[in-house]
Design brief:
- The complex is a heterodimer of chains A (224) and B (374).
- With 224 residues, chain A is mostly helical.
- Chain A has 2 domains: 2-109, no CATH class; 116-213, Cytochrome c-like domain (Cytochrome Bc1 Complex, Chain D, domain 2), CATH 1.10.760.10.
- Chain A is built from 8 helices and 4 strands.
- A two-stranded antiparallel ribbon of chain A has the order 1-2. A two-stranded antiparallel sheet of chain A has the order 3-4.
- Chain A starts with a helix and ends in an 11-residue tail after the last helix.
- In chain B, the strands form 2 sheets. Chain B has a 6-stranded mixed beta sheet.
- Chain B folds into 2 domains: 4-64, no CATH class; 68-358, Metallo-dependent phosphatases (Purple Acid Phosphatase, chain A, domain 2).
- Chain B is built from 11 helices and 12 strands.
- In chain B, strand 4 and strand 5 (172-177) form a beta hairpin.
- Chain B is an alpha/beta fold and 374 residues long.
- Chain B is globular, with a radius of gyration of 23 Å.
- Chain B has helices at 4-25, 32-45, 55-65, 87-101, 122-132, 145-148, 154-160, 193-201, 214-226, 256-263, 354-358; strands at residues 70-75, 110-112, 139-141, 165-169, 172-177, 234-238, 269-273, 281-284, 287-291, 326-332, 338-344, 350-352.
- The chains are: A mainly alpha (224), B alpha/beta (374).
């Protein structure tokens, strides 16, 4: 009898520790800043004292089988070959805990695969690249210019770049060109620099800035 | 067998065409007008509308109405760097000087529309002065923000004198107005003079303040106009447009309304401004506004706020570095209003006629662009 309780408690402790880890990893916070995550998770002491102590009522068993419940109070599992009140062997207890945690995670993720943290990362990383592009767009030295001409001098706020119209035929290039071909053309000609490799991070940043400036404009490839 | 009337029309056309080409061969200045009228006859006989570039026809029509009192030329926004850094802008400025020197008859004077230098550096301003000194006609200098914000106009004033001044010419009162003052944004940010200059030089840099004539400038303007009759035609040279076009790019004068208020009582006022590097036309009550071309590079039209009367020029061809740039001339009429000629270097010239603005855009509409901005 005593041993059986101990085992049940062990399952509970295991499950709680998993819950805690999971909530840590899924909470929205600065990427790479665990300190922020942890701080955000600490409930102020006063608020915690006002809250009623959490209840863990014993789950009902209709068929007389053992029913195990997670600390969320909802996720339950009926163990078909173990009678209520019987002891789970350690290996079986571990298997049950693993399966219940898997089910718990499955349930939590059903609304959306992605968390607020994911979305923050997407936005922040994209804006970081756009800002880098904005910097390059206004700095002739950073893109290898040689005569003091930067992109923004002809294209304030990236105006008149029309990223939504590429690829399109450029008479002077005698072929259908992508936006990056025109970026390189501008770097080579008015800016008098050397063309960037197509996978140069600066090229990606320039594309990010130019296209971001025209966000919301319908795609219209081929327009002149 | 052709019906008789077709045959006659065809014969008449062939005869006119032969006469036209014969006349072109022995074309001299006296034959000019005669050939122009022949060209008109040929094109109308073929019921082909003459292309806009056929300026001969415009000249003939204009001469029937009234002749301009005088002409002045303009060069603007050369944005010179030192020659060893950037030769392109230097060459463009020299091309404009050659253009103006080639005008025959010579204009009464040449307006320089501001932004002589790119970063206001003494070497840039001196280079600009040297290039402009090649002009045969006298030069009227105007200051732009690129000339000013490195040393707050110290070098420019040493070279060219005060930024606000006026003069009278053939019955017209000319005012050169410093309109690119900005409220102090640099002290609080601890900027060096060069940082301040580069901030102002960035058209889309939101940190800087907006252009203004300022209370002192407006006081000066009022004092200057105090002795001028309300009937005297007035032409104002200002670097920034003296109206509100597009705030984020400083195509803008913050106290534009207050300045316009000073100019409204006069019978005829024309503002010729630089800064916008594009064909730009506006009218507010009695004030006609005309932009100037840059010799260095054209600017796209702003995404909003374009005056209704502006007929855009085509978007510039990026593969032609001279496209959308140029210089021009201004024909001043007795009323003080002007025909504004845009001498675009890689295209047909465009004239925004006095009649266009006087009729609020109903007459003499400039040619529409094939590729407007979007």
């Amino acid at each position: 009898m005593r041993i059986r309780y101990v085992k049940l408690i062990m399952i509970g402790v295991l499950a709680i520790s998993w819950c805690g880890l999971w909530s840590l990893s899924s909470n929205g916070a600065a990427p790479g800043s665990w300190m922020n995550v942890i701080l955000a998770d600490i409930t102020p002491l006063a608020a915690a004292q006002q809250r009623p102590p959490s209840q863990h009522p014993q789950p009902n068993s209709e068929n007389g089988h053992l029913v195990v419940q997670l600390c969320d109070g909802r996720t339950q599992m009926e163990i078909a070959d173990v009678r209520e009140g019987e002891v789970l062997p350690p290996e079986k207890a571990r298997l049950v805990a693993r399966r219940m945690m898997a089910r718990y995670e499955q349930q939590a993720k059903q609304a959306s695969k992605w968390t607020r943290r994911d979305r923050l990362i997407w936005k922040r990383e994209q804006q970081r690249l756009v800002e880098e592009g904005r910097r390059l767009f206004h700095d002739w030295k950073a893109i290898g210019g040689t005569i003091g001409i930067s992109c923004d001098m002809c294209h304030p706020d990236a105006a008149n770049t029309h990223p939504e119209t590429y690829p399109k035929f450029q008479t002077q290039l005698k072929r259908v060109a992508a936006l990056r071909d025109m970026i390189n053309w501008c770097i080579e000609n008015p800016v008098k620099g050397k063309p960037l490799a197509l996978d140069d991070p600066r090229m990606l940043a320039l594309e990010a800035y130019i296209t971001y400036q025209r966000r919301g404009v319908p795609l219209d490839p081929g327009k002149h | 067998m052709w019906p008789l009337k077709w045959k006659q029309r065809e014969q008449r056309y062939r005869q006119e065409r032969a006469d036209f080409f014969a006349a072109v061969k022995r074309l001299d200045r006296r034959a000019f007008l005669k050939v122009a009228s022949m060209a008109a006859a040929v094109t109308t006989a073929k019921t082909v509308l003459p292309p806009h570039s056929f300026q001969l026809i415009d000249v003939v029509r204009a001469s029937e109405d009234e002749k301009p009192l005088f002409q002045f030329a303009y060069i603007s926004d050369t944005h010179l760097y030192e020659r060893r850094l950037n030769e392109r802008f230097v060459k463009a400025a020299m091309r404009a000087v050659e253009d103006v020197n080639a005008l025959d008859p010579q204009p009464d004077f040449v307006l320089f529309g501001g932004d002589l230098a790119q970063l206001g550096q003494p070497q840039e301003l001196e280079l600009g002065k040297q290039i402009l000194s090649e002009l045969k006609a006298p030069v009227k200098m105007m200051v732009g923000e690129h000339d000013w914000f490195l040393d707050m106009g110290e070098k420019w004033q040493e070279l060219f004198g005060p930024p606000n001044y006026s003069f009278d010419h053939k019955g017209v009162h000319f005012i050169v107005l410093m309109s690119v003052n900005e409220k102090d944004f640099w002290t609080a940010r601890n900027m060096t003079p060069m940082e301040r200059m580069k901030t102002v030089a960035g058209l889309d840099n939101p940190i800087q303040s907006r252009f203004e004539v300022g209370p002192e400038g407006r006081q000066w303007l009022k004092r200057d106009l105090a002795g001028v009759s309300k009937e005297t035609p007035i032409i104002v040279f200002s670097h920034s447009p003296l109206y509100k076009y597009y705030r984020p790019w400083n195509f803008w004068t913050e106290d534009a309304e207050a300045v316009q208020e000073i100019l409204f009582p006069y019978r005829s006022v024309t503002v010729i401004h630089g800064h916008t590097h594009q064909l730009l036309t506006n009218r507010i009550r009695n004030i006609h506004f005309h932009g100037m071309l840059s010799t260095a590079w054209p600017w796209p039209y702003a995404p909003e706020g374009l005056p209704k009367l502006t007929v855009q020029m085509d978007r510039a061809d990026p593969f032609d570095e001279a496209d959308g740039t140029g210089d021009g001339t201004v024909d001043v009429y007795k009323s003080g209003y002007v025909d504004k000629h845009y001498n675009l270097w890689s295209r047909n010239p465009i004239t925004v006629a006095k009649a266009y603005l006087e009729s609020w855009g109903k007459e003499a509409r400039p040619p529409a662009p094939q590729f407007p901005s979007y």
